[in-house]
């Protein structure tokens, strides 16, 4: 459900709504337009870099959404995921759950471009660049433009041992607990899983649902039979490496819209947790609302991204502004 054909008035209303939500739910020091005086062209420069990459690689949107989420869920949104390991420290980037995360190079490119602006070197954090880049990539993939508060500082600690991200086989209850532990609601969780409207996964993360669901030797009965047969051709065996890539949204996989929720209601969720959103009593109402004819998905997704961007941020004099995103100053 792209906002672009609904008129300038609706776009302005969404911008205002998300901005107001960010003020209500945001951190005290984060604000929209934080760089307006100290580096006025920072946001436009990040947007230009992301636009350039998006023109040649539409998959940068799910890549950045995943990078943003994985960073914010460990030590907060402080760009600790970007820090490279050293001889004495294994960093978050090298934890198993992060080995397939990508987009680091585009964050580095945006950081370099911003630091070349007059008077801007050392002024814009890598954490803010992640947040802005994610926002811009979402808008390019069909979502609306929206206001992202900035003012984050970069963390100085990154440990692979601290990475404990919610996985695709969690129950709805366990996933809810993971989100509420970060100060987010169950509604936020359901909405943010809508990021799978542009994501992919690999056979190894769901092939048990095709071949041996819960040890039954049969497919998961909650998955559409035709989809099971289609996926079995892509994933002909269970437990053989990552396997092939599969779109999480079988409807409009390159567009940020409500299609993901229509898919899970049609029993076409690929990951177990995704499908459970439509069948669990705690979340099925929300899933139906987001799939419906008056779906608030677009506005709610942007607001949830803003709230995600407030998790555990460093502000003021805490942390630092890294000169190189992969290395502590």
TrEMBL record:
It is an enzyme of class 1 (oxidoreductase). Ca(2+) 1 binds at residues 71, 74, 76, 78, 80, 92. Its EC number is 1.11.1.7. This is Peroxidase. Removal of H(2)O(2), oxidation of toxic reductants, biosynthesis and degradation of lignin, suberization, auxin catabolism, response to environmental stresses such as wounding, pathogen attack and oxidative stress. These functions might be dependent on each isozyme/isoform in each plant tissue. Ca(2+) 2 binds at residues 197, 249, 252, 257. Pfam families: peroxidase. Gene3D superfamilies: 1.10.520.10, Peroxidase, domain 2. The keyword Metal-binding applies. Binds 2 calcium ions per subunit. Binds 1 heme b (iron(II)-protoporphyrin IX) group per subunit. InterPro entries: Haem_peroxidase, Haem_peroxidase_sf, Peroxidase_pln, Peroxidases_AS, Peroxidases_heam-ligand_BS, Secretory_peroxidase. Heme b binds at residue 196. It catalyses: 2 a phenolic donor + H2O2 = 2 a phenolic radical donor + 2 H2O. Residues 1-29 form the signal peptide. Residues 29-329 form the Plant heme peroxidase family profile domain. Its cofactor is Ca(2+); heme b. Keywords: Calcium, Disulfide bond, Heme, Hydrogen peroxide, Iron, Metal-binding, Oxidoreductase, Peroxidase, Secreted, Signal. One of its GO terms (molecular function) is heme binding. It is found in: Secreted.
